[in-house]
Model the fold of this input.
Amino acid sequence: MSNRALWILVSLLMGTTGVLAGSATSSSKVAGDLRVPQTMHAPTGIESVSRDAVTYSRAVRRGESLHLSTTEIVSRSREYFLEVSGEELSRGVAIHSHGPGALIRINPAGAAKGAILGLEELQIQAPDGRSFRSADAASLLVSAEELREAAPFPEGTVAFRLADELGPGQFVLSRKASAATERWVIHVLDAGSPVEMTLRTAKADHFVGESLRVEAGLLGEQFDRVNTTGFITSPSGEVFDLRFDPNAQGGLAATLEIPRVEEWAPGLWEVHAFTEASLEDRLVLRNLRTAFNVVWPTARLDGVVRNYSNLESSGDRVYSLGVEVASDGRYEIRGVLYTRLGGDWEPVAIAHGADWMNAGNGQLELRFERRAIGDATGPFQLRAVELRDQSRLSVLERRERVPLNRRAP
Amino acid sequence: MKRGFLVVLLGGLLTIPLAAETGVAFVHGTGHQTDALNDYWQSGFVNSVRSGLPDQSNYTVINCDFEQYMWRSDAAGCLAGYLYSFITANNIDDLVVITHSNGGNVMRWILSNPTWDSRYPTIINSIRWVNALAPSSLGTPLADAVTAGTVFEQALGWLLGYASDAVKQQQTSWMAYYNGSWLLGTAGRPSLPVGFWNVVGSDVETAVWDPDSYCGGYTLNLGLEITQAWLDSCSDGFLNCSSQAGAGSVWFYDTSSTNGSEPLSHNQSRRKCFGLDVILRNDI
Done:
C-alpha cells in the first residue's frame, strides 16, 4: 500500500461519517489530570470581572456525566475561498468544483466594500466550454437584499448555485464591468463532493510555550498530490505561519511552539489551513479553520486541602484549597463530593467557589451546602477538581482525585 | 417527562414557599436590542404567552447587547441584571425563561458559571426551567461562512471584520470549544442545573400562495429558505437541527406539536406562528 493510500485509510478511520456542509464536530474523552508545570505572570484579562466571593452548590443528578475531559475538536470543510481583483474577475476566474451543484458566494472586500454586484452581470463558462449568463447556469440565485435578511453576510454579498446538469469541473466566472481597484472574495461550497478536508488539534487548550500540533487530512478520494499551507491567528490579530510536512502516517502535520503575545484578548486562537490536491487534471481546493485556546498558567493548586466541615453548624461540607497565584485575577475552583454508598463511591454534590486573588498564596473555598448533600453522612471524597482563571477564560488544572488532608485548622 | 423532571428537581433542591410567584422572561437572540418587545418578539406573541401566568404582569422582556461575546458585562451581565431585578422586585421564585437563538447560549453561560457573578446563584435557584427556542447550542456553519475570508484583511482587518463577536462565537469550532470548557449541558458534559428544553425548527417553507409563509414575514422566511443551502437537510434556515438539540433536552420538534404540523423557520420560532405561543402559554 502506498503512503498516500495509507494516509487516506488512516484519515478515513479517524473521521466520522455524514455529509456536512462545512461544519465542525467535537468529541470528548477522559484526559486525566492537567497540571500547571510552572506559573507565570500574565497580561491583564477581563477588566470588568467581579471582585465578589461567590459560592454555589447543587445535588448531582442521577446519571449525570461528571468526568473531567478535554475536548478534541475536529473541523471539516467542503469549501474554499479566494480573493481576486476586479481585473482578474473581468478576465475570468477559475472555479473548481469536484461535485455538482456547487454553491458560489461573492462579496466585496477591502476597498471594494459597498460595491454592488448584480447577479445579471456575471458570466459563467461551464467545463464543456459553453457560456451562460448566471441566471441560465444557476438553479438558485440569491440577491444581496435576500441574503441580508437571513444572515449577517457582508454587505453586497450575492450567491448562486450551479445547476447540477452542468456537472463538476472547472468553471470560469467573469464580470466585464469590474474595475481594476475592486477586490472580491469568492466562496465555493462544494456540497455535492465527497471530498472533505479535516483539521484536528491534539487538544483544545495549550499553555503558552507548549507545542501546538495540527493534523490535516483530506477524505473521500485518493489524490496524486496534496499540499497544505496555513497559519495561526491570535485573538488580537497576530499571525504566525505554519508549515505542513508529511508525517509518519503518510498524512500532513504542522508543529509550532505557541508564541507569547504581549496582550491578552478575548476570543480564541485559530488554525487556518489551505489545501490544494490534484488527481490527473482535476484540482480540488479546500480551506478550513479550527479554534483552540492558549492558556497563561497564572495559578496552580498547592496540594493542601483544609477541611473546615467540623466547624460548620449548618451541616455544610466546607473545604479550602490552597492556590499559588502568579497574576492578579479572579479564580474559580470546582469539585464533586463523593460518598460511600454500599461498597461504591457515588457522587453526591457539585460545588463552585470563586474570588478575586492577588499574586501570592491564597485559598479558594468549596462549600457543599446541606441541602445539596441531602442525607449523605460520609465518608467523603473530593474528586473532579478544576482550577480556572475567570479573568482570562482559562482552565488551569484538572485533578481526578484530591486527597483530603487531615490538617485541622 | 417535562413535569416529572420538575418534581424531581424541586424535591431535591428547593422548598417552594406557599406564596411562590411565577414569572416569565423573554431573552432575545443575536443583536443589540432596545425594544425587543416590538422589534424582536412582537407584542402579540409576548402578550399571548404571558396570559398563561397567574399574574400576567409578572413578565420581563430583556434588551441587551448580544452582539458581544456571551460572558461580557453587556451580554450575560445585562441579562443577569434584568433577571435579578425582576426576581427580587417581584418575589419571583418560579421563573420560566424563554430564549431564542443565541439567547440560549447567554442563558447557558449564567447557568454553567454560577460563581462568575454574585447575582447568578439567586437567578439559578429561581428558575423552574428554560424553554429554548431554536438555540444555537452547537453553533452554525453560517457563522463560519460569514467570517471566512476576513482573515485576508489581516491584522486590524480581522478585528474589524464583517462578523460581530457574537457571530464569531457561534462558529462551530468555537462553540465546540466553549461547550467543552465553559458551558454545560451537551453530550458527555455535566448537566445544567435546571431543565433546558429545546424547541427545534426543522424546515423553512415559502410559497407565494401559502399564507403560512407570511407568518413572521415572507421576505425573512424567503431569505432563510435560501440559507438552508449551507446547512443540513434538517434545519430552520439558520441552524441545523443538531445544533438546536445539542444542549439540554429536546422538548419537541416543530411539526410534532404546531398547528397543521407546520415547520418553524428561525424567524417563525420567535413569533406567534402555528400555535407556538399557545404551547408556551400552556407550559407556564
Summary: DSSP finds five helices and 28 strands in chain A. Chain A touches chain B through 83 residues (CB under 8 Å). The CA atoms of residues 207 and 295 of chain A lie 5 Å apart.
